[in-house]
Protein backbone atom coordinates (compact mmCIF):
# COMPACT_ATOMS: atom_id res chain seq x y z
CA UNK A 1 0.00 0.00 0.00
CA UNK A 2 1.31 3.42 -0.89
CA UNK A 3 1.05 6.17 1.75
CA UNK A 4 -1.48 8.88 1.08
CA UNK A 5 0.34 11.69 2.86
CA UNK A 6 3.88 12.21 4.06
CA UNK A 7 4.37 15.30 6.18
CA UNK A 8 7.65 16.07 7.91
CA UNK A 9 8.71 12.81 9.54
CA UNK A 10 5.26 11.15 9.64
CA UNK A 11 3.46 8.89 7.20
CA UNK A 12 -0.35 9.06 7.17
CA UNK A 13 -2.15 6.11 5.62
CA UNK A 14 -5.43 6.41 3.75
CA UNK A 15 -7.05 4.40 6.57
CA UNK A 16 -5.89 6.84 9.24
CA UNK A 17 -6.95 9.90 7.23
CA UNK A 18 -10.38 8.36 6.58
CA UNK A 19 -10.86 7.53 10.29
CA UNK A 20 -9.93 11.06 11.41
CA UNK A 21 -12.16 12.60 8.73
CA UNK A 22 -15.04 10.41 9.89
CA UNK A 23 -14.59 11.62 13.49
CA UNK A 24 -14.97 15.20 12.28
CA UNK A 25 -17.87 14.39 9.96
CA UNK A 26 -19.68 12.57 12.76
CA UNK A 27 -19.23 15.53 15.12
CA UNK A 28 -20.37 18.22 12.72
CA UNK A 29 -23.80 18.48 14.35
CA UNK A 30 -22.15 19.59 17.61
CA UNK A 31 -20.88 22.55 15.58
CA UNK A 32 -24.31 23.26 14.15
CA UNK A 33 -23.17 22.19 10.67
CA UNK A 34 -25.37 20.33 8.23
CA UNK A 35 -25.10 19.48 4.57
CA UNK A 36 -24.74 22.64 2.49
CA UNK A 37 -23.20 24.72 5.29
CA UNK A 38 -19.74 26.25 5.21
CA UNK A 39 -16.80 26.01 7.60
CA UNK A 40 -13.75 28.21 7.40
CA UNK A 41 -10.20 26.99 7.82
CA UNK A 42 -7.36 29.24 8.99
CA UNK A 43 -4.55 26.68 9.08
CA UNK A 44 -1.07 26.15 7.77
CA UNK A 45 -0.60 23.37 5.25
CA UNK A 46 -0.46 19.97 6.90
CA UNK A 47 -2.42 16.90 7.97
CA UNK A 48 -5.14 18.90 9.76
CA UNK A 49 -6.02 20.63 6.52
CA UNK A 50 -6.08 17.38 4.53
CA UNK A 51 -8.34 15.68 7.08
CA UNK A 52 -10.75 18.66 7.10
CA UNK A 53 -10.96 18.61 3.30
CA UNK A 54 -11.86 14.91 3.40
CA UNK A 55 -14.41 15.38 6.19
CA UNK A 56 -16.15 18.24 4.41
CA UNK A 57 -16.21 16.38 1.12
CA UNK A 58 -18.02 13.41 2.66
CA UNK A 59 -20.38 15.55 4.77
CA UNK A 60 -21.47 17.84 1.94
CA UNK A 61 -20.03 20.89 3.72
CA UNK A 62 -18.14 23.57 1.81
CA UNK A 63 -14.66 24.36 3.07
CA UNK A 64 -13.58 28.01 2.84
CA UNK A 65 -9.83 28.51 3.13
CA UNK A 66 -8.55 31.72 4.68
CA UNK A 67 -4.96 32.78 4.07
CA UNK A 68 -3.12 32.57 7.38
CA UNK A 69 -1.43 35.91 6.65
CA UNK A 70 -4.77 37.73 6.81
CA UNK A 71 -5.58 40.04 9.71
CA UNK A 72 -8.84 41.17 11.35
CA UNK A 73 -10.56 43.00 8.47
CA UNK A 74 -9.91 40.40 5.76
CA UNK A 75 -10.89 37.55 8.06
CA UNK A 76 -14.09 39.26 9.14
CA UNK A 77 -15.08 39.95 5.53
CA UNK A 78 -14.57 36.32 4.46
CA UNK A 79 -16.33 34.82 7.50
CA UNK A 80 -19.30 37.17 7.19
CA UNK A 81 -19.54 36.88 3.41
CA UNK A 82 -19.52 33.09 3.34
CA UNK A 83 -21.72 32.79 6.45
CA UNK A 84 -19.37 30.25 8.06
CA UNK A 85 -20.79 28.15 10.89
CA UNK A 86 -17.37 27.31 12.29
CA UNK A 87 -13.73 28.34 12.06
CA UNK A 88 -10.91 25.82 12.49
CA UNK A 89 -7.81 27.86 13.36
CA UNK A 90 -4.31 27.10 14.57
CA UNK A 91 -4.22 28.34 18.15
CA UNK A 92 -1.30 30.70 17.56
CA UNK A 93 -3.27 32.63 14.90
CA UNK A 94 -6.31 33.33 17.05
CA UNK A 95 -4.99 36.54 18.63
CA UNK A 96 -4.31 38.12 15.20
CA UNK A 97 -7.92 37.71 14.00
CA UNK A 98 -10.13 37.18 17.08
CA UNK A 99 -11.66 40.67 16.89
CA UNK A 100 -12.79 39.94 13.32
CA UNK A 101 -14.71 36.75 14.05
CA UNK A 102 -18.45 37.43 13.72
CA UNK A 103 -20.76 36.49 16.60
CA UNK A 104 -22.12 32.98 16.36
CA UNK A 105 -19.15 31.46 14.56
CA UNK A 106 -17.92 28.47 16.56
CA UNK A 107 -14.13 28.60 16.90
CA UNK A 108 -12.14 25.38 17.10
CA UNK A 109 -8.57 25.89 18.27
CA UNK A 110 -6.19 23.46 16.59
CA UNK A 111 -2.95 22.92 18.54
CA UNK A 112 0.28 23.53 16.67
CA UNK A 113 3.07 21.02 16.24
CA UNK A 114 2.29 18.20 18.64
CA UNK A 115 -1.25 17.32 17.63
CA UNK A 116 -0.74 15.28 14.48
CA UNK A 117 0.95 11.93 14.50
CA UNK A 118 0.52 8.84 12.40
CA UNK A 119 -1.20 5.71 13.73
CA UNK A 120 1.77 4.50 15.74
CA UNK A 121 2.53 7.95 17.19
CA UNK A 122 -0.97 9.19 17.99
CA UNK A 123 -1.08 10.97 21.32
CA UNK A 124 -4.73 11.90 21.59
CA UNK A 125 -7.38 14.23 20.16
CA UNK A 126 -6.16 16.97 17.89
CA UNK A 127 -8.96 19.47 18.52
CA UNK A 128 -8.16 21.16 21.80
CA UNK A 129 -11.00 23.51 22.52
CA UNK A 130 -14.11 25.14 21.21
CA UNK A 131 -15.58 28.50 22.05
CA UNK A 132 -17.88 31.13 20.65
CA UNK A 133 -16.39 34.23 19.05
CA UNK A 134 -17.73 36.31 21.91
CA UNK A 135 -15.07 34.75 24.10
CA UNK A 136 -17.35 32.68 26.30
CA UNK A 137 -16.36 29.06 26.60
CA UNK A 138 -18.61 26.62 24.84
CA UNK A 139 -17.04 23.16 25.06
CA UNK A 140 -18.86 21.10 22.49
CA UNK A 141 -17.23 17.83 23.59
CA UNK A 142 -15.46 17.62 20.25
CA UNK A 143 -12.84 15.36 21.76
CA UNK A 144 -15.43 12.66 22.27
CA UNK A 145 -17.91 13.27 19.48
CA UNK A 146 -15.35 13.58 16.74
Write the CATH fold name.
Rossmann fold
How confident overall, as mean pLDDT?
79
CATH architecture, please?
A: 3-Layer(aba) Sandwich
Q: Estimate the strand proportion.
A: 15-25%
Number of helices: 5
Query: How far apart are the termini?
Result: 26 Å
The major β-sheet equals: 5 strands, mixed
Shape: globular
Structural class estimated from helices and strands:
alpha/beta
Into how many domains do the coordinates divide? 1
Strands of the largest sheet, in order across it? 4-3-5-6-7
Please give the number of β-strands. Answer: 7
Radius of gyration: 15 Å
At the first level of CATH, the class is Alpha Beta
Order of helices and strands: EEHEHEHEHEEH
Proportion in helices: 25-40%
| Low-confidence regions | 118-125, 128-146
What do these coordinates show?
The protein is built from five helices and seven strands, in the order ββαβαβαβαββα. The chain has a single domain (5-145), classed as Rossmann fold (3-Layer(aba) Sandwich). A hairpin with a 2-residue loop joins strand 1 and strand 2 (10-12). Helices cover 31% and strands 20% of the residues. The strands form two sheets. The chain has a five-stranded mixed sheet with strand order 4-3-5-6-7, with helices on one face. Strands 1-2 form a two-stranded antiparallel sheet. The protein has 146 residues and is of the alpha/beta class. Residues 118-125 and 128-146 have low confidence and may be disordered.
